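Technical appendix A lists one of the benchmark inputs used to test multi-chain prediction within the project. The record comprises two sequence entries:
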Amino acid sequence: MKKSMVLLLAGISMSALLTAGCANKEAVKKEEAVVPPVSVEKAVPVAPVEQAQPVEQTAPVQDAVASAVSPQEAMSPVAENRLETVYFDFDKSDLRQDTRDVLSKNAEVILKTLAGAKIQIEGHTDERGSAEYNLALGERRAKSAQQYLTTLGVKAENTSVISYGEEKPAVAGNDEGAWAKNRRAEFVVVK
Amino acid sequence: MKIFLVLLFLLASSASLYAQPGYIEVTAPGNRQLKMAVAPPHSVDVSPDSASSGIASAVIAFDMNLSGLVAAEIHPEQPAAKGFPLVAVDFVPWLSAGFDMLVRSEYSLKNGRLTIEFRLFDVINRKLITAKRYLGGAKDLRRISHSFADEILLALTGEKGPFTTRIAYVSTQTGNKEIYVMDWDGYNPLPLTKNGSINLNPAFSPDGREIIFTSYKRRNPDLYRRSLSNTAEVAVSRRKGLNITGKWSPDGSKIAVALSKDGDTEIYTLDKDGSHPTRLTINPALDLYPSWSPDGKQLAFVSDRLGKPQVFVMNADGSGVRRLTISGSYNVNPSWSPKGDRIAYSRMTGGDFSIFTITPDGSSDTQLTFDGSNENPSWSADGRFISFSSRRSSGGGVYVMRADGTGQTKVSQGKGKHSQPVWSAR
């Protein structure tokens, strides 16, 4: 049952990925608006068998779009679409005012519509600095965001963190425009 | 892969021709660099395989040139040698061509079985310095040739070369970061992981037969261990949070690693099966990237406890922490030399990294790379070379250089980006 839910969600995420792939790279961040909101509750009913088919057909396309991400990894970041990504300054993990504002919105969404859901916070860095130090820095960012959500009433046991350091940039590029978009924490509903 | 090494039995009277270690003073300043001729092997077969012949001389010339000890040149026998006399070499043409040393060899390749004998001569004094005979398969030719290059270094310096060792690294050849291993000169690249996830920071066991590395294959950066000859991967540490930058202790009994299970990233030692974590660093900063001193008594590591990442040194029980790097605002990737005399690291200035080395007491801080961005230095087993990853206009990948920064040469081959090289012990 859980599996079929993932497949259904993956089917929807496929279209999101394809949309993002057709548009320019800027669309990566904006894709939330394109995808119809999917709440966990709606997805729970067992998906009809036919639903599985598009997933298989589009799987290679997905690989091409998200080349650095394994299919398994790409399937899950689906239901986070109402949780906004937050951004950080270079080599910093403290929360800027705009970051706090977004975290407050995220906390509201979690408390209202995702009560009981497990949310993984992914910490990321830009490509500068050493890859190993960036793993630790990414985790520090994810934990900053996690702590702030906790102070806003989100249960700590419902959140977890993972750091990808500089390994999964949101956008390609070697300038401050790209770096600023990559220094981030993303929120993924894992179950 | 097994190579049978047979010492050449010489006549008792010629035993004195063997040199004492350190026979040629090659490192004295101001000396003219000695010239070595590497003659393509002479075949005893009826229909010789000319490709094999070229490989042996190319491997030895490459190794010797990179060593910096001699200037090696592939040079055909003049006139073409007839047979392969044991000692009676006509040295006159080699002398007049300006060579100080000569490598000759003779091989036979029959039904995939290779027999090859190498001899190193002192042209000036007209004597044999060392000789070895090897038996193996046709595919072992590169390895056998590297092995004789090791012997040449032993004869010239008293210490064997590192030319039969290997370098593990991360390659994006398949589109994902996977662990590969290659010969030190970049040949025979072999993928170890094929899990399609993110795999990082390989490190060799002291016997060179196993590696540990971090993989996201189970959706967390966990530390795994595997042998080079077997695909089975065993989890060493799958603790909550980061399990990164693992390094085997020199005696193989422990693994130093950065874990974040207790909050922020700290350095621990584990038994080699991953059990019994002992926490070494205790502070609110990030502590990671441990590198053992060769006697196993100390660890260099990276910490941002003073704001920006710097290299520190501590005793292996976590006591006696001191800052090592004073200059530069961002110093990472410490790697302790196998002789214990220097620590290599990389420093970021203006977005690009350069490789430096420094003594363990913090003196003689020396910049080795000036081109592009260069990271993750790792020493060869004899301390003669440093491997590192580079991004530079002449081509990125895994490079090797001498410990003084000279002879920077790209060695990794194939598609994708190659990074995080680490050199095996002997």
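The longest strand of chain B covers residues 127-137. Residues 50-67 of chain B form the longest helix (18 residues). Comparable benchmark entries are summarised in Table A2.
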